[in-house]
Amino acid sequence: MSSSSTTPSSNLTDDEQQQPTTRRIRLLSLHLNPPLHHPHNHHHLHLQACSSRAKMDVNADKLSAYLRGKHRDVQERVFEYFNSRPDLQTPIEILKDDYRELCMNQLLGVVREAGIRPFRYVVEDPAKYFAIIEAVGSVDMSLGIKLGVQYSLWGGSVLNLGTKKHKDKYFEGIDNLEYLGCFAMTELHHGSNVQGIQTIATFDPLTDEFIITTPNDGAIKWWIGNAAVHGKFATVFAKLMLPTHDKNEVSDMGVHAFIVPIRDLKTHQTLPGVEINDCGHKVGLNGVDNGALRFRDVRIPRDNLLNRFGDVSRDGTYTSALPTINKRFAATLGELVGGRVGLAYSSVGVLKIASTIAIRYSLLRQQFGPPKKPEISILDYQSQQHKLMPMLASTYAFHFATVHLIEKYSQMKKTHDEQLVADVHALSAGLKSYVTSYTAKSLSICREACGGHGYAAVNRFGSLRNDHDIFQTFEGDNTVLLQQVAGDLLKQYQEKFRGGTFAVTWSYLRESMNTYLSQPNPVTARWESEDHLRDPKFQLDAFRYRTSRLLQSAAVRLRKHTKTLGSFGAWNRCLNHLLTLAESHIETVILENFIEAVKSCPDANSQAAMKLVCDLYALNLIWNDIGTYRNVDYVAPNKAKAIHKLADYLSFQVKNIAKELVDAFDLPDHVTRAPIGKQSPGEAYAEYTQFVGF
């Protein structure tokens, strides 16, 4: 037993110390019902004295330096450029067609005037590329998406799915925006199920060409960014059909990617056989020109096949180092995972903006107060703290988790390690789904937290909410992605019992399956002290215990239902259970990375502030799912109450340093406050902020 067992022993009589059995019973009794002076029962004193504690000293600049890391300079270049060009800042009221042209001019300005060339970093330095994406997306989300379509999707497909000949031919034009392009994967009838797409590419050995065909209306490429107005090329995903010895038959080799020119490079006219239609006005992101593409037997050279994972020779012979359609498809999608990484990271950027606006407003806005006393800040109300402080804690947690994801992604691009590829694929799916869903909900909470003034378009919540909403769908529907995470967890679970090893991200389950599935310890289930509840080991153990229980019970249920419903029916029967499992696992990964980030912080005051925020993140989530822990007696009733009280107290303490915490995001005014019309941010806000408090 730990050293805590020595304290009760000092209360034993000499006779009791002579009797080992009596002594053990007495020890256990004191653990389960500790006296008031026992060190595991002093949290009440902390809670009563919370208002008298001195405010924590936090240096926002030092904390910001740790948060923003080594790519802060390139982000500042983006912000400084747009601050110097108010004519390129998006006005509140703008027509769709004007918005698209403004967004194109914004992109040209970043690349050609500011001299920021993101494309070269896509493979060489992904962390720097994603830092640029976050900055431009903070200025205007449409700009961030348009830049991502050009460089991550169109450019990334050329780099990651093509070979040297493609890079030599297209790199410079993609980099300098001469070759504006699209990423044509989604079809009218197929989005998430990419293997079900119907567009076909048939090889013609007589002319050494592929014939790209849209066989029916359901195969029209839909929601294709850059297609409606600006795109000149498209990476088109289609089923590769090769002629067989029987001239009337073709062989389906699975989904491949092809470079298809869609507009003339000089005249910008649509090329023969290509039909382009405009998807029209959307809920958000109207600076991006989404369009629909139909191909009527469009012929392209054989060299336009992006042939990294499969090639066709002059005589129509197919070669690949990967033996099956499924392996080639998995390799193809694995190389496109950067889009999910970028979306997860960018979504955190949106959450930073929204929480900054809402918290700054809540600190300045005053309503009601004690009788005959001045009105108080609305952030002094516990209800406002409950809305915004856990959200601020989650923003910090998500930041470090997505930074970790980018680091793993960068390592994957360098090493091409198969295990790391699988790890990043599952982790990016989980974080993209979890973070974007959380941010979408939080945007509405931030708007509501700012009352009527939050409804003013100038204060960005409406545009942020509308622009970000689609993050939950593109690059993989969030519900589908969570199922991928759950499927991978179950696969790892099965491998364990076959003598295999867990992937790096799931490594904690090695211990969990053996330790956390045993009966909860009746002693630790009752420990209530602040030191214990704020111990990272307790927090991680609780998260891991929940995930392990969910994983084991999901496996048991699936095994049971498969006997009567088959594998598909069993999966559907257990689907909500599986989604909860995936979310629990992702929350565990997020907490692990937050704890590590706190440990690694070099500045003591910043570290103390982040420890406070990290504890709030962990205990708030434990309390939100306290029923699960109570049902299995992992947490005793009094301990559950202690967790609730401590979470309230931590929320109060985080409120006291909330200004410094959001200041550390270091967002410029033209990002957290949208300009009205063509005025500068200062002119636009001078009168409005005088009585609103923004």
Note poorly predicted spans: 1-18, 20-52, 674-694
Mean pLDDT: 86
Helix content: 55-70%
How many helix segments? 28
Supply Rg: 28 Å
Oligomer: single chain
Number of strands: 11
Q: Supply the helix-strand structural class.
A: alpha+beta
Strand content: 5-15%
Largest sheet: 6 strands, mixed
Shape: globular
The termini sit apart by 54 Å
Region (Disordered): 1-21
GO biological process, one term: fatty acid beta-oxidation using acyl-CoA oxidase
GO cellular component, one term: peroxisome
Keywords: FAD, Fatty acid metabolism, Flavoprotein, Lipid metabolism, Oxidoreductase, Peroxisome, Transit peptide
Describe it.
There is one protein chain. This protein is α+β, with helices and mostly antiparallel strands and 694 residues long. 57% of the residues lie in helices and 9% in strands. The protein is built from 28 helices and eleven strands. The chain has helices spanning 6-9, 14-18, 20-32, 43-48, 60-68, 72-84, 96-113, 121-124, 126-139, 141-161, 164-175, 325-335, 338-364, 382-415, 418-449, 461-468, 478-496, 508-515, 530-533, 536-573, 575-600, 604-624, 626-631, 637-656, 658-663, 669-672, 681-685, 688-692, and strands spanning 181-184, 200-204, 209-213, 221-224, 233-243, 250-261, 274-278, 291-295, 298-301, 311-312, 318-319. Strands 1, 2, 3, 5, 6 and 9 form a six-stranded mixed β-sheet that branches. It is globular.
